[in-house]
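DM from R.C. (forwarded with permission)

"hey, sorry to bug you on a friday — could you get me a structure for this? deadline for the figure draft is monday and I only need the backbone to look sensible"
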Amino acid sequence: MFPGGGDMQKMLQQAQQMQADYMQAQQELAAAEVTASAGGGLVSATVTGDGELKGVKIDPKAVDPEDVETLEDLVLAAVQAATEDAKRLAAEKMGPLGDALGGLGGGLGLPGM
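My reply, with the result:
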C-alpha cells in the first residue's frame, strides 16, 4: 500500500490496460483511411488515421498542360485537407487515452510510450 491508500498492483493493472487500449487505438488509426477533395472533387487525397498518404486521384478535367500550377495547388489542398481530417480522427480516437498515458507513460517507463 502507498501512503494515502493507493494500491500499486491496481495502479499497474490500470496502466497496463490503458497501454493496451492505446496500442489498439493506434492500430485502428493505422488501418483507418480518410479522403478529402479539392476543386469540387477534381482532386482527392486519401490519408491513414496515423497520417500516411495512401493515394491521390486526379480527374482528367483537372489536367491542363498550360496551367500546372492550379493542379499543384489542388493536390496540395486535397492532401492538406485529408491530413487535417486524419489529425481530427486521431484526436477523437486517442484523445482520452493520449492524455492519460501522456501523463503516466514517462513516469512509469512503460514500453511503447
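R.C.: lifesaver. The radius of gyration is 21 Å.
me: no worries. Residues 27 and 60 are 35 Å apart (CA to CA).
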